[in-house]
Amino acid sequence: MKIVLIGDYPPPYGGISVHVQQLSRLLAQNGAECRVIDIEPGTTPKEGAIRVKGYFDFLRRVFWFSYKGFVSHIHTNGHNFKSWLAIWVTTWVGFLFGRRNIVTIHSGLMPAYSDGSGLAAKMLIRAALWPAGKAIAVNEEIEKALLKLNVNPDRMIVLPAFALGNRSHSLPERVLAWRERFQPLITSAVYLEKEYGTELLIEACQRLAQKYPNLGCLVMGSGSREAEIRAEIKRWNMEDRIFLLGNVAHEVCLSIMEKSDLFVRPTFFDGDAISVREGLALGVPTVASNVGYRPGGVFLFEAGSVADLARQMEFGLREKRSSRGGEGREQNLVLIQGIYEKVCRGAL
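Structure (tokenized):
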């Protein structure tokens, strides 16, 4: 079995990049020949992935791997024209070589993009998925949006891009010290960019600290606004309570989340956030903005409202941890493995 995975690859650790990494490890463990084409912007080399250098390089590599007998599986958001163009290239190049390639559409914003698009974009979506062996929607809302566009339902499946994955057996000493020091301990995993709402979380923590004098918060992730966010932490006199950990390996991130009392996703807009699913699977009370797709069990706050965020965080802190754990989540990876096997033998 020869598979090339196309999508973002860590670092940084985001929903798509972590899922692609999990799939590449699964394929390697099962003896498949697997390659990864990393389409995340940038040129810094990454171990385990081939970085593309622009549109022509992407097209060239998809052609090359198809010629060499690989089945391609592209992972992308599906909420802009560029994303669907990449899908179109992947599926049609595979079709030219007699293969039905695979698509996973990750973004909960895809339905809104589809509804607001003109005829040309809708035609591109239908044309991009026509040659696909399987179109995987990560939630039911994406599936409904594709069905509205008359995408063949027999080629679709709903399958969350989520398997909880391993946790780290050891954590940095400073994290263990923070766990001992802070009660409650709040965690968040975001990019340090404007749309991720980190400033909202900082102010909400400052408000809650008046009621919880031992409150602390660990923020995992990197971004271009790190200096501004550090200044915001200082402005609220929260330097001894809120800590920016930067990029954290996924196994470590999950372990930190698991040891926390609350997980918060404060974004202004969102897709199908894997970190929210992970928080729930770990049994950690989880708060998220009421945007994008949210599974049941999340404490939802009005996006952009510090007051509502603080209120929902307090509700979450009163919630007892569940013992649901992550059992069965690996089944998602097993199902994808079955799709690969069918596509490789021409059964799809």
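Residues 81-96 form the longest helix (16 residues). DSSP finds 13 helices and 13 strands in the chain.
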